[in-house]
């Protein structure tokens, strides 16, 4: 199996896009998860990513609320994803990410209503995704970022309710560290519904800087024959988990994290055989 390794461009902060691609290439990844900025010309972005020999592995969406009780807000959020699918197709991306609004830690007060709205919006998005043959991965967050879909089990329930072969799950080692009793078991239960695996240690830093059993999770990925990308999503040490910039030297720290973690991931997946 020829595994594709990537990283999330948002973690580089506000440096120019070309600089982000250049740094990603220097780190040694195969591809990147780009931000779904609809003001960015997808042809120009595709050309820039290609210039540095990278692939677009996935697309991170804007922070919108597809299960809002407010109809106007919900409709605008769904329309964003419909437009994002067109944008992704022009970009040449075959996968986008979908998730609840980051920062929305409570719903309308009626869990069943919130669930119904989430399903309805997801179905609308997936109808277009199917027509365009673009995969949608629903990212499982944690309770401090969103109130819905915080475990792999909940994501699988959503997949069953939406009933589209184009809807899969994105499990993230950092979020699973908070919500899953056994992250490896969550990966195992996701099985062939796992579309993307995000990785960072328990403190969202480099592999080995926290207490997560990343080795066990990689072993599980192999057991379930996961062939999708492994995308690193790390940040430098510091406050405010929603910003990439954590001081003057954040970029140098982050580059070190990514290089160290990429080496470790490859070592875990392809251990050297001693003769």
Structure description:
44% of the residues lie in helices and 14% in strands. It is α/β, with parallel strands linked by helices and 275 residues long. The protein has one domain: Divalent-metal-dependent TIM barrel enzymes (TIM Barrel), CATH 3.20.20.150. An eight-stranded parallel sheet has the order 3-2-1-8-7-6-5-4. Strand 5 (135-139), helix 5 and strand 6 form a beta-alpha-beta unit. Helix 2 crosses helix 3, helix 3 (71-91) runs parallel beside helix 4 and helix 7 (183-190) packs parallel to helix 8. The model has no long low-confidence stretch (mean pLDDT 96).
Beta fraction: 5-15%
Strand order of the largest sheet: 3-2-1-8-7-6-5-4
Specify Rg, calculated over alpha carbons.
18 Å
Largest sheet descriptor: 8 strands, parallel
The share of residues in helices is 40-55%
Number of helices: 9
Oligomer: single chain
Number of domains: 1
Order of helical and strand elements: EHEHEHEHEHEHHEHEH
The CATH homologous superfamily corresponds to: Divalent-metal-dependent TIM barrel enzymes
Overall outline: globular
The CATH class, by name, is: Alpha Beta
Distance between the termini: 23 Å
Number of strands: 8
Q: What is the CATH third-level topology name?
A: TIM Barrel
Spans where pLDDT lies below 50 across 5 or more residues: none
Question: What is the mean pLDDT?
Answer: 96
Class based on secondary structure composition and strand pairing: alpha/beta
Second-tier CATH architecture = Alpha-Beta Barrel
List the helices and strands and how they pair.
Blueprint: E1 5-8, H1 17-27, E2 31-35, H2 42-51, E3 55-60, H3 71-91, E4 95-98, H4 111-132, E5 135-139, H5 152-162, E6 167-172, H6 173-179, H7 183-190, E7 194-199, H8 214-223, E8 230-232, H9 250-269
Parallel strand pairs: 1-2, 1-8, 2-3, 4-5, 5-6, 6-7, 7-8
């Amino acid at each position: 199996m020829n595994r594709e390794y990537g990283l999330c461009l948002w973690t580089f902060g506000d440096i120019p896009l070309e600089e982000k691609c250049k740094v990603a290439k220097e780190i040694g990844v195969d591809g990147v998860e780009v931000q779904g900025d609809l003001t960015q010309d997808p042809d120009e972005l595709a050309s820039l990513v290609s210039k540095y020999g990278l692939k677009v592995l996935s697309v991170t969406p804007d922070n919108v609320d597809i299960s809002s009780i407010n109809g106007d807000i919900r409709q605008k959020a769904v329309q964003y994803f419909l437009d994002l699918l067109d944008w992704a197709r022009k970009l040449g991306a075959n996968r986008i990410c979908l998730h609840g609004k980051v920062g929305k830690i409570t719903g309308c007060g009626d869990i069943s209503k919130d669930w119904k709205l989430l399903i309805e919006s997801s179905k609308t998005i997936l109808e277009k995704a199917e027509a365009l043959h673009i995969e949608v991965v629903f990212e499982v967050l944690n309770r401090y970022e969103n109130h819905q879909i915080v475990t792999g089990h909940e994501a699988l329930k959503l997949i069953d309710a939406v009933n589209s072969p184009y809807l899969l799950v994105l499990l993230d080692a950092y979020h699973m560290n908070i919500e899953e009793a056994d992250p490896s078991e969550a990966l195992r239960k996701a099985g062939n519904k796992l579309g993307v695996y995000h990785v960072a240690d328990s403190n969202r830093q480099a592999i080995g800087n926290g207490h997560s059993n990343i080795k066990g999770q990689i072993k599980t990925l192999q057991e379930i024959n996961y062939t999708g990308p492994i995308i690193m999503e790390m940040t430098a040490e510091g406050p405010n988990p929603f910003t990439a910039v954590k001081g003057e030297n954040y970029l140098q720290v982050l580059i070190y994290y990514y290089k160290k973690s990429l080496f470790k991931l490859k070592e875990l997946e392809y251990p050297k055989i001693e003769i």
